[in-house]
Amino acid sequence: MEQQNFKILIADHTHQDFAKIICDEMESSAKARGTGIAKRSPDYIQDKMREGKAVIAFTEDGVWAGFCYIETWSHGEYVANSGLIVSPQFRKSGLAKLIKKKIFALSRKTYPEAKIFGLTTGLAVMKINSELGYEPVTYSELTQDENFWAGCKSCVNYEILMSKERKNCMCTAMLYDPKDHYEPEETQQDFTKHSKLYERFMRIKQWKLLAPFLKHHEPANSGNKAGGSPENAKRHRSLFHTFFNF
């Protein structure tokens, strides 16, 4: 792809006409991935724009390119950077990382005391999050706000989530705690060092979660043991505990 320059702005009322396009692209992308997201209406997206709780990206020619917004839970104790979407023609351009950095900075400025968290099924997003200072955590460390979890009902994996009593699912949970966190350089180095291990853990986790829901699957005898815990003794959270909280 030819190098593209983008303008990433804090959205406002002047961007409301893009709400329908954004919602349609969110839904289309979720279907393509075979997962799901909390469905939002154009009116909801427009509210986020008017409140200054969203960022929007354009090309230098004014073509819409991407979007992300802020949600708060548990009376502002937790913040989620939700609905990250990049227009298909601009994917793999590095735009997702730029949007994540912008919305993260906006979240920190608007809610400096809040814990910022996210759920993802992709290593690419995990990598971006780690560069911002996020760490993998168990679901118990996320908000327990019922309204947040209700948003998972539109996901194809909702049955798995509920079967695990909301303690685990196909997504990996990541958290940035402003009161207790490593520096971004440390979390980035940790992710780089253990990226292959994360990838393997995610495959094993997804297989173990899906197995009970499949009519035909092979017995768990094909080398799906995790092997050993990472050698980074400094980290206070166990990757095994995080990824295998069954």
What's the layout of helices and strands?
Blueprint (H helix, E strand, L loop, with lengths): L5 E5 L8 H15 L8 H10 L2 E6 L4 E10 L4 E9 L8 H16 L4 E6 L2 H10 L2 E3 L8 H5 L7 H6 L8 E5 L7 H27 L28 H5 L3
Parallel strand pairs: 4-5
Antiparallel strand pairs: 1-2, 2-3, 3-4, 5-7, 6-7
Helix pairs in contact: 1-2, 3-4, 4-7
Written overview of the protein:
- The chain has eight helices and seven strands; from the N terminus they run βααβββαβαβααβαα.
- It is of the alpha+beta class.
- The protein has a seven-stranded mixed beta sheet, with helices on both faces.
- Helix 3 (95-110) links the parallel strand 4 and strand 5.
- Helix 1 (19-33) packs across helix 2 and helix 3 packs across helix 4.
Q: Give the CA-based shape.
A: globular
Describe the main β-sheet briefly.
7 strands, mixed
Order of helices and strands: EHHEEEHEHEHHEHH
Q: Report the β-strand fraction as a percent range.
A: 15-25%
Termini separation comes to 41 Å
Q: What percent of residues adopt helix (DSSP H or I)?
A: 25-40%
Low-confidence segments: 216-241
Number of strands: 7
Q: Overall mean pLDDT score?
A: 81
Give, in spatial order, the strands making up the sheet with the most strands: 1-2-3-4-5-7-6
- Coarse structural class: alpha+beta
Number of helical runs? 8
Rg value: 18 Å
